[in-house]
UniProtKB/TrEMBL annotation:
Residues 103-183 form the SPOR domain. One of its GO terms (molecular function) is peptidoglycan binding. Residues 1-20 are annotated as: Disordered. It comes from Pseudidiomarina gelatinasegens. Signal peptide: none annotated. This is Cell division protein FtsN.
């Protein structure tokens, strides 16, 4: 088949509209009748139960059981059993001594929050740290690749203290601070 010389298919024409007289109704009469019957039944149900909650409870049902039998069915509550354990009395007056080994304290820690070529950038970082409530220092180092201005906090005796300050900085949107051993 030659697709290049093929004729185009004829254009489709929109379907013709039917006249309004010949159109069927959207909902038939029996569906409307069923809906009306259901609504009427629901309204009747609501009317019949509307006053039921205000009525008092009916009289209790009396049975022909003798009083002697009722008294036999009710058993008294037994006395509370005696404690078999003495630990509440013993532990109340005791003191617990726990031997906790001391942690080894390593070298002091230093936290660096930035390293900048420009001193103004380092001072800006130091001001942001001061707004959080921590004190930092700017250390200038001259190395083989130029001058660097480092913003550092510390020294810290334990890493836990440094972590606590790092979490304060992260809550203040200063991220990327690193904790190192003091050199």
């Amino acid at each position: 088949m030659d697709y290049a010389n093929r004729k185009r298919p004829p254009k489709r024409t929109p379907p013709k509209k039917q006249s309004k007289k010949a159109a069927k109704p959207a909902v038939s009469w029996w569906v409307v009748l069923l809906a009306v019957a259901l609504v009427a039944g629901f309204v009747w149900f609501l009317v019949t139960i509307s006053g039921k909650s205000n009525q008092t409870d009916p009289a209790p049902v009396v049975t022909d059981v003798p009083e002697k039998q009722l008294q036999q069915e009710i058993k008294p509550i037994p006395d509370m059993p005696e404690e078999r354990y003495q630990y509440p009395d013993v532990l109340e007056n005791q003191e617990v001594i726990v031997d906790v080994p001391e942690r080894e304290i390593g070298p002091p820690k230093l936290m660096q929050c930035g390293s900048f070529r420009n001193l103004s950038d380092a001072e800006q970082m130091r001001a942001m740290i001061a707004m959080i409530g921590l004190e930092s220092l700017i250390r200038t180092t001259d190395g083989g690749n130029g001058v660097w201005h480092r913003v550092v906090l510390g020294p810290y005796v334990t890493k836990r203290e440094a972590e606590r300050d790092r979490h304060k900085l992260e809550r203040g949107n200063i991220h990327g601070c690193q904790i190192w051993n003091w050199n």
